[in-house]
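Bug report (template v2)

What were you trying to do?
Predict the complex of my protein with KG4.

What happened?
Run completed; filing so the output is reviewed.

Input:
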Amino acid sequence: MLILSIETSCDETAASITQGRRVISNVIFSQVDLHKQWGGVYPSLARREHEAKIDPIIAQALKNARMKIEEVDAIAVTFGPGLVIALEVGVRVAKELTVKYRKPLIPVDHLEGHLYSAFAQNRAGKPARKFEFPFLGLIASGGHTSLVLVKGHQDYEIIGKTLDDALGEALDKAAKILGLGYPGGPIIEELAKKGKPDFIDLPLPLVGRPGLDFSYSGLKTAFRYQVEKMSPRDILAALPHLAASFQAKAFTHLLKKVEAALDNTGLKLLVAGGGVVANQLLRTRLRALAKPKGATLYFPPDEILISDNAAMIGVAAHFKYQNGIYLKGNFDSLDRIGRTDLHYWTTKTV
Ligand code: KG4
Ligand code: ZN
C-alpha cells in the first residue's frame, strides 16, 4: 500500500511516498534560513512559506518515486500538535487531494511520527527491526520531551513529559543567551566538543522529585543568571565551556529520567526520536545507559528521518490504516486541527 504523506507542523514543508515501512521518497524543504533572523519560528511567515512550497514539494515527492498521485492508495497528514496556522496548510491540501482523487485520509499525530521514525526502512526493507511491544519511546525535539509507554500500535501512554520547555527548546534558548544562532542545538553540540562540562555549576532539574517528568526552564534561568554575571569578553572566551556545561546538565536530566523509566517498567527496548537525537553526545550517553541494562536502543536509521519529515508520518499512517483508522468522506473531525483528541494519543500519566 502506497501512502502520500504531508507534514507542515512547524518550519519544514515535507512530503513523502512510503510503502508500508519502506521510504520511496522523502522531500523536505526547511525554512530555517528564513526564521534565523528572528531567532525562532515566525508563525505567519511559516504559513506563507508552506503555502508557497507545499505543491512543488508534493510534486517532487511523487517525481522522486516515479509515480502519479492516482497510484497512491491513501493520503496521510500531520494533524497536530504544532503551529495551528502551519498545520492548516498541510491539512487543507491533504483534504483537497483526498476529495479530488477519492482516497482515504489518515490523520497522524506528529509525535507518533517521531516514535515510528526508528522503524522506517529503505527501499530494500532495511533495517528489519521488529516492533517488540511494549517498548519505551523517547521523543526529544524542539516542541516535546516525552517518555511514552508504547503498548501496541496506537496504544500509547505518556509516562513522562516536560512541565515547561522542551529539551530542544532549552538548547535553542541557551544558544540565544550566548548570542549564537538558531537552531541552537547543533551549534551548542559543535561548540561543546571543545568545552569543559563542569566549567560552571548548574542545578540538576527536579532533583529528589519522583516521577518521570522533565523541566528545563529552571536550568535555563540559572544559566542565564551565570552568563549575565560575566563580561562579554569572558563569555566569548568561554563559549565552548558554557555550551558544554549547559548541554551536559540538560542531558543528565534527560538520562536520569530515561533510566528511571527503564528501571520502573523493566522494558528492554528503547526507541528514540526527535531532532535532539541527532546529537552524537546524547546518542553515546543513551547507548552507555542502555547497554549494561541489556536494553536494545533504536535511533532513526537515517539522518533525514530525525528532524521533521513526512516519511515518519507515512510509516505511522500505515499502521493506522491497517487498524482501520482513517477518514473517508466525512472530515468534520478535521476542524479540530492541533487538538490531541483525534490523535489516538492519550495524555494519561502514571
Ligand atoms: O524534531 P525537530 O526537527 O522539530 C520539532 O518537532 O520540534 O526538532 C528540532 C529541535 C531544535 O530544538 C534543534 O535545536 C534540535 O532539535 N536539534 C539538536 C540537534 N539538531 C537539532 N539538538 C541538539 N543537537 C543536535 N545536533
Ligand atoms: Zn518534530
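What did the reviewer find?
Confidence is low (pLDDT under 50) at residues 341-350. DSSP finds ten helices and ten strands in the chain.
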